[in-house]
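Weekly structure sync, notes
Attendees: PL (lead), two postdocs, one rotation student
Agenda item 3: pending single-chain targets
PL asked that the sequence for the first pending target be pasted directly into the notes so everyone works from the same version. It is reproduced below exactly as submitted, 408 residues in total.
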Amino acid sequence: MRQLLSQDQEEMDLTKQLGCISHAYSRRGFALSLQIGRLFTILLTTIVSAGCASSNSTNSSSSSILDALVKSSPYEAAKETQLLELGPEAQSWLKAKFAHTRKPTKKTLRVLAKAFSPDGDLGLQYDHLGIYTANETFLRKAGNCLSFTHLFVAMGRALGMDVWYREIMPLPETAKAGDFTVWYRHIIAYVEVDGQSFRVDFGGQTDTKRDLGITVSDAHAQAQHFSNLGAAAVINGHIEKAFRNLNRSLLIEPTLAYAWSNLGTAFIKHGAMHKAEMALKQSLELDPYDIGALRQLETFYKRTHQQHLAARYRTYVKNAQSIHPFGKYANGLASLASGDARAAIIDLKAAAKELPGLMRIKIYLSKAYLDAGQWQAARRTLRTALSMARSQEDVIELANLLRTATDN
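Predicted structure, written out during the meeting:
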């Protein structure tokens, strides 16, 4: 067990070495990141009522709502873009920088990550309004955290690394931007090289928060990109541009809950209150714990003089905050770190039930079982996690834990 923790600490030290790049960007740009950043949901805190919305829940299916609000929109969806395509200049830079690289290693990863630092070879500067593709980020030498991640994923793959997007899933943070409350989420790059996995973060998240994440597809990341563009357009008062980008986001990924929430906010700003209600409720159909959408509906009903519904959604917000699976996950990790294994088991079991696809929850739950001396439960949980493992590093970690559980 001590040997396993030593190996894990070695990996985390490298993660922190890469992560210090993101902390430098965070110090330079976070204070300006009120209008845009990472992945975000927007809520109007001041709404001019433009008529009463229907108080009846929509019974439409997801596809019919997509047809009604997106496919039938008078605003044509924005054109799709090649987020990860690198132009000739970027390809030439990679070729010169890594001229002697035949197979990517941890050293390759370190060199590439260092190039993204504020004083790195790429010369990148943080721009809180910069929502760019990989190639645009390279050419402009600027962008926000999502833009940097696009460029890193594109360059890492061009060098032969296995690189994915990883969306960080804890309860979102908030900030004010004029009439809006911005709910921030976060995305990082997840890399597998030399049989180990590493997380490259351009947003300054803690190690614990980076653990609260899931790997997402390129299509999902593209939908997030267009959702960000749409949200920024709403904040800046460009309503047609907002609809065009949000429509494209939802055509790519109709199940992206916070894109529906952003669309609902756009409809409120546009005065289309019934459509706003439909979009916000669709967000909750996809993610019942979407606190942003719940708060927006609370404000929506308050401003449309439907106080009984506002009170109902105010209660929903409080309930969601207390039972949110990622909140339980975070609480479980805190209990485990403090040595309270039994409290950790309660929260991690609840989180694992709601989030069965997250292997890391099962790893931490198994550690809690081990600390509590519940060997049979630890073995059962570890076998399930082992069947989900992707990287050699995960397999080794789980095998060592399973060996510990089997020896007792």
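Discussion points:
- Strands lie at 39-44, 125-126, 142-143, 162-177, 180-193, 196-200, 213-216.
- The longest helix spans residues 2-29.
Action: rotation student to compare against the earlier draft before next sync.
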